[in-house]
Amino acid sequence: MIENRRQVRTDGTGNADILETAAQCFMEQGFSATSIDDVARRLGATKGRIYHYYSSKTDLFFDVHREGLERLFQAVEPVMGIEGSGVVRLRAMLTAHAMAMMTNAAFEAVVVQGVHMHRMAATTPDQRRTLDDLIAIRRRFEGLFKQVLQEGVDDGSIRNIDISISAKAMLGAINWLSVWYRPASDETEMDRQMLAERIVTTQIDGVRS
Amino acid sequence: MIENRRQVRTDGTGNADILETAAQCFMEQGFSATSIDDVARRLGATKGRIYHYYSSKTDLFFDVHREGLERLFQAVEPVMGIEGSGVVRLRAMLTAHAMAMMTNAAFEAVVVQGVHMHRMAATTPDQRRTLDDLIAIRRRFEGLFKQVLQEGVDDGSIRNIDISISAKAMLGAINWLSVWYRPASDETEMDRQMLAERIVTTQIDGVRS
DNA sequence: CAAGTGCATACTACTGAGTATGTTGTTGAC
DNA sequence: GTCAACAACATACTCAGTAGTATGCACTTG
């Protein structure tokens, strides 16, 4: 477990705000186009505050990335163990994933950006390790879906397909939400739920027996 | 028709090289993280050459973007008019799209990046118009799929689904290729064809009657 | 041979990451 | 109750990188 946060505030008003604001900026402008001053300005603060908690812009990005991944796990893992055949559980997982993508749009946009950084020139060895760590976590996340896909094939509820490719395609359809989805101002939880169901239904019907 | 290229070389050795190299750089590092000097260095040249043809980095990016879109149209439009029901034509279009995403990985990665630039602070009014133009072209491209989806619903070969959402999900599954697909060194056209077929089959089975 | 093309070279002006240092509260030891 | 240490920032720098420009120079073309 590598720790890039210098400190974690106990009152939850410092670090969490930085993380949230950074996620917003990274979502809107991307990693490179976002300056630390941008984040600070939006926080109503200065660089000093950010560099007090994070030793570099990259570390800040990685921490947002990690938070985004954690939220995905928290959304998907609980529904993984529900009753039902493989296809039933897969549907619940995909729906939870889609909901998480919309609810935590900023953080998950950073996760998506992170995918492109695999080959990034992470300067320090520490950052390299952190990045590899994040990649491993994302692999584990993808693995959850592959596992349930396989269980579905085994119990006959899912067609005999190439699991690796199907997983990438299905997750792609959902992750693509971070590209085009922007919350409407008057949008309710129900609206998001409807949208998630529709996307997932199409994907599930594509693999169901 | 707004023209951002100052000149187009007739021998096809100047501009095309710049475009290709720029696409590579933009794919690997993204727009902001790519410097004009990066592109020039990779070309074995200097900034002078690039600024001779393009008046700004943004204009260069837009031209790569436009080329990427044109290649998508050239891949998809021809197969749109083949014989067959809606679902048959849709499958052919999606497959052509997937193949184009892999064959022109660099250019299409730029197209995907361009999606995020909708809200970009395009400085000059000229650039604003060019960007709006590109957005319109992309809308038209998405429209092709929606149209055939609708025709499929009408002729009964496709289930009665929400066309707009299904189109986004299906195209998302395919566009996601630009995130994870990297050509293997010993990869053949057949390998790509197989991959495309598998992704598309899952998507088609999700909407077929 | 004059005008323009196709670049390279050599600048400028600015942004932006990271640092060094100051300043104000807070906390715990005695 | 006080004082030293430290947390939580703000301020004021440095310096490398980078977009864009100005200019020079060989080579081609009408």
From TrEMBL, chains A, B:
InterPro entries referenced in this protein's UniProt entry, alphabetically: Homeodomain-like_sf, HTH-type_TetR-like_transc_reg, HTH_TetR, KstR2_TetR_C, Tet_transcr_reg_TetR-rel_C_sf
Methyltransferase as UniProt keyword: no
One GO molecular-function entry: transcription cis-regulatory region binding
Ranges of residues in domain HTH tetR-type: 12-72
DNA-binding region: 35-54
Pfam families with a match to the protein in the record: TetR_C_24, TetR_N
Keywords tagged on the record: DNA-binding, Transcription, Transcription regulation
Protein name: TetR family transcriptional regulator
